[in-house]
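Handout, page 2. Input:
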Amino acid sequence: MSDAPALDRIRVGSAPDSWGVWFADDPRQTPWHRFLDEVAEAGYPWIELGPYGYLPTDPAVLRDELARRDLRVSAGTVFTALHRGPAVWDETWAHVAKVAALTRAVDASHLVVIPEFWRDPVTGERTEEPALTAGQFADLAAGLERLGRAVRDEFGLGIVVHPHADTHVDTEENVTRLLDATDPAVVDLCLDTGHYAYCGGDSVKLIETYGERIGYLHLKQVDPAILADVIAHEVPFGPAVQRGVMCEPPTGVPELPPVLAAAQALGTDLFAIVEQDMYPCPPDQPLPIAERTRRFLSSCGA
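Output:
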């Protein structure tokens, strides 16, 4: 038994990302049925959908596959480029609506919204400028508010914006700027502890300062030695992942017990979904890591 206080407001799960899944279809990735089998075997009751099309998109089929393994879904995920302005709304909504409909059909409550990368996530090739203009930032904030209202009104889901390396929502400055510029009634934050640390942020400080905006957690750690080299040589995120910058807890930063304690102190129910970016990875690598990580989180009271 753990001596750690019970974190009874934290609902722990895992995601396809922890099995090396970044795309809907890639022969180097773990097949979806193996992911479902292994995430259940590792002891996680909650999962995310991952990239749309990776898991079955027929709601009846997906519900049956989940029920067979006693799994439930916490969220779906979408990538958006709302900083490009109203011209991209129709295309964005067409994609978001598909994901949101499936998310709602499996009784999940959240939609994780990841801003578009300014570098290709695999090759690292720069596709946009790394900083937004004032007009682009205004479009991003307005677009996220519009998306939050539409997703809430049509599907009954809440959006949580995910700060991410190699996107325009990354550092403390950019994250807090976005929070200050958006309506808390329709835009919350998915705090990914690993990405925030990767970009120099302090997760505990953010939770303590903007606790009312923390709607969801991704639990992740970075290897500080690899990160220092990545930053020094301006290595893009995809190649950095292949170097192992995202590492197995508790070997990296930030320390997760203080993060979990700060989240528990908010007094609200929060999903805390484990993600360890490992794309691509050998097929037998994820399960042992997932089992060890689950035991570690249990020792923390989660």
